[in-house]
Amino acid sequence: MQSTWYSLDEGNSTTAFSGFSGTISQNAWNNVPEGEINITFYALDIAGNIGMNSIIVIKSIEPDNGSSGPRISGYNVFLITGIITVISMVFVRKKK
User: What percent of the chain has pLDDT over 90?
Assistant: First the structure.
């Protein structure tokens, strides 16, 4: 191979690498948004032929421990506490 490179943004910017293995640049990865990421790999041979192959990966950022967001999607402790309180009150009134 003459050269190899990859793109995380549909070819708008590229990052060169050597050989057939390696890691994605952490800076490049941090700059792409969450969601489906199309990583396209390119190779140029000595004759000038360019080959390419793509893979789609899902980038999902988990909230860190200091985050104020919910840890389980859709889980609302106030709603569950309210429902339990209402059910408890109904049972207590029925027993009286």
Answer: 21
* Residue 32 near residue 7, CB atoms below 8 Å: no
Q: Residue 70 to residues 40, 63, 84: CA-CA distances in angstroms?
A: 34, 9, 20
Instruction: Retrieve residue 37's tokens.
Output: 């990421």
Question: Where do the domains of the chain lie?
Answer: 3-61
Tokens 């967001």 belong to 69
Alpha carbon distance 38, 35 (integer Å): 10
* pTM of this structure: 0.60
| Cβ atoms of 38 and 53 closer than 8 Å | no
How would you label 10-26 residue by residue, b for 16+ Cβ within 10 Å and e otherwise? eeeeeeebeeeeeeeee
